[in-house]
Amino acid sequence: MDIREHNRAAWDRKVKQRNKWTIPVSPEVIARARKGEWYIVLTPEKPVPKDWFPNIEGLSVLCLASGGGQQGPVLAAAGANVTVFDNSPKQLEGDRSVADRDSLIIRTVEGDMADLTMFADESFDLIIHPVSNVFIPKVRPVWVEAFRVLRKGGALLSGFNNPTVFLFDYDFMEQTGIFQVKYKLPYSDVDNMEEKKKRIQEGEPFEFSHTLEELIGGQIDAGFIIKGFYEDAQNPEDYEPLAVYMPTCIATRAVKP
Questions:
Q1: Which stretches of the chain are DSSP H helices?
Q2: CA dist., res. 192 & res. 197, Å (int)
Q3: 94: number of CA atoms within 13 Å, CB side?
Q4: Span 181-231, pLDDT tens digits
Q5: Please, which residues bridge with residue 228 across strands?
Q6: pTM exceeding the 0.85 threshold for the entire prediction
Q7: Which of 43, 138, 160, 246 has its CA 20 to 30 A from that of 234?
Q8: At what angle do helices 89-102 and 27-34 cross, to 10 degrees?
Q9: pLDDT tens digits, one per residue of 82-127
């Protein structure tokens, strides 16, 4: 089946459901960003360290698989020239709505995060890629394309899931309070027929785990130098019960030499 098409429709539906990651930032957030008071997240809770950013003013920034009216508008208000790229038309509408509301200039482009052929080599100074490659089966093409479209000295700031979150039987955990290993890694909803059927019926996006070799080693193999790293966790009440016990997300700063 067409995974990209299914996940596009699923995220369009999440916009209608007002999922946390589809709600655009407020006018107050934009006003503060215009004064230089801003932050964004790559992972659920921790702000990206300020020293991970160059001077934003005038930079060409690609918000990769980052629609929803959150990171893109903040960076545009802070002075960057922003392009938001996402698979979901409804998510991109969120960025356009903030741009219209707050008189920002934001370019929006719909597409597959692993295919940036519409952009020329060395088009951007900075790429913002929050947790989103969990929704594609192969992550290495994302790193290769990101490296290609970045200018020399540019940085890719990425967030992604720790692969261990896909090990467990969460239905069993909810019933018993016990984390029981059920799945072999790397995990795929498409290969799990029971979960695949459930997600189709409920209109939920398909998810895929990736090994640390693919997530971090893949960036190095693409040509990046890893210059920054931190861990984070979802709010256990909202997303991930495993977060009570361990960090469930990773963020990296990778530089194109």
A1: 3-17, 27-34, 71-77, 89-102, 140-149, 170-176, 193-202, 212, 218-222
A2: 9
A3: 30
A4: 999 999 999 999 999 999 999 999 999 999 999 999 999 999 999 999 999
A5: 253
A6: yes
A7: 138
A8: 60
A9: 999 999 999 999 999 999 999 999 999 999 999 999 999 999 999 9
